[in-house]
Specification:
Number of domains of chain A: 2
Number of helices of chain A: 12
Radius of gyration of chain A: 19 Å
CATH topology of the largest domain in chain A: Rossmann fold
Oligomer: homodimer
Number of strands of chain A: 8
Largest interface: A-B, 38 and 38 residues
Chain lengths: ~300, ~300
């Protein structure tokens, strides 16, 4: 039981919480997990960004006139710093470049059928190597978190993935990697359209964001999907704070987990993008998981 | 097994389909049901309309100036014909009045927390009598459809409610009435907001429609929630046609069910709003369920 976890405050908090949760009716035992940086590695860049960049390069290959425009220019020149700067500016309150990036990404998949999109994501995730960990992306999940998901399910929990990443990007691999069935994956999505034909019709991506499942949208999407307030939530970044705050019940056990990336030898060490979350963890008494101290193994 | 169903083509089609579906992996056995007119009675008016009218009357009670404006005027004067005319005009392509009706309904719940809203819906559905059937609304579900839902689940299906009605309106009673857990209820919803506080915060209705789960939106919402194309879908109206058309697989069994309201003695007899669906059922070979002929009992 939790053999990949070292004895310590985090493991103790988890096992005590699960013991207490046995008193709660099983259908209320809802656990919600962020994905990037919580269930799998998000450095040196989010896995989905690699998928998107390859698509933008393919688009620029076909349309040379786009190579002088963002975001195709940065993708074509492999200028990761441009993407990082746009995201950093966004978190600093400057959205000058973000609309161009979002539009480029949404355009890249416009008109693609959801079943085709999943097949592309599946192919990418199962065959592409992580640039520094030297293993396929589907093997970049954290073993202790995979074990935690299974431990929760063994104790009657339903485990959801509430990620800022793309819902249909994660679904094809969620069962195999995490034991989480596709209907329990919550994430961001483009607006979709349904086009009828004689073979059951096709649902296609439209070049308009439906919602970005991050920040205050996370509690909304968890409610919309489950109709419940979770007993447990786990995240690692500022965008997870509202989901963790929402995980609150009077008279029922709750557990809020925050993964701290403090292990440069086995994974990465960073707190950028998690400053507010770490501060809130301290104030609200959340359980901080130290990758360095709390996990026997990482992958 | 299906004791409330009379022997006949519909019952035969169902049992044969379920037998064939045993060959399909259990996690692909997804069944989607419309609610109003498919799982419970929608005449003389949809059950949720009664709930909305009472709320509009309460608003008009507090704000006399609204009593001369639609939709509060019609609600206050119990002028059901106005509501019927707006909906009929909508289906005839005339949306002159629909925005006022939609705005009135959305305004009526603006700012209400989702947990409060559910408590109000639950109270209404469990305590209000159907105007002609003389039984509480929660007892207006069709017994043969409730038995069908259970029969499907006994055979490894997951049963979803994909209704044009309000998701959060149905959720509080879906388990007790249909055996369908709240996370398997798909329906229409207003846009929601999340407001943080020291007690887990509140998700509130905003006066803007998020989506109306009807027509081509039904396949989109089923996909978004389940990540799957159903093996079985059941409906009764034109708005269910895309969901039934979407229920199509090559090399796997499928079943498309259309409930025909042809029993004026035990329920109601009407085809208004189902003309296109009945026509499509004939062309696509869907299974039409005659309430008069196929069901031993209705409620």
């Amino acid at each position: 039981m939790l053999t990949t976890w070292r004895d310590g405050a985090a493991k103790k908090a988890i096992t005590e919480f699960v013991e207490q949760a046995a008193e709660v009716p099983a259908d209320e035992r809802v656990a919600a997990f962020d994905n990037d940086g919580t269930l799998w590695c998000e450095k040196p860049a989010p896995i989905q960004l690699d998928f998107i960049l390859r698509r933008l390069v393919a688009v620029a290959d076909e349309s040379p006139e786009l190579r002088s425009r963002q975001p195709w220019k940065a993708a074509y020149e492999n200028d990761l710093a441009w993407f990082e700067a746009v995201v950093a500016a966004h978190y600093a309150g400057d959205d000058t470049q973000l609309p161009a990036l979002a539009a480029g990404i949404l355009e890249a998949y416009s008109g693609v059928g959801v079943e085709d999109f999943e097949a592309q994501a599946n192919e990418f995730l199962t065959t592409t190597q992580h640039p520094t960990l030297r293993r396929p992306y589907v093997q970049c999940a954290y073993a202790p978190m995979v074990e935690l998901l299974a431990y929760l399910r063994d104790n009657g929990f339903t485990t959801y993935i509430a990620s800022g990443g793309g819902r249909d990007f994660m679904r094809p691999i969620s069962q195999a990697v995490y034991g989480v069935p596709r209907e329990q994956v919550i994430g961001s999505t483009a607006t979709l359209s349904y086009e009828d034909d004689e073979h059951g019709g096709t649902i296609r991506h439209q070049p308009v964001l439906d919602y970005l499942d991050d920040g205050p949208e996370k509690p909304i999407r968890i409610w919309s999907r489950t109709g419940r307030r979770p007993l447990l939530a786990a995240g690692n970044a500022n965008g997870d704070v509202p989901m963790l705050r929402f995980t609150h019940h009077t008279g029922k056990p709750t557990l809020r987990l925050l993964v701290l990336h403090d292990d440069p030898d086995r994974e990465f060490a960073y707190t950028t993008g998690a400053e507010q979350a770490l501060d809130q963890a301290h104030r609200d008494g959340w359980t901080v998981i130290s990758i360095r101290d709390d996990w026997h193994t990482v992958f």
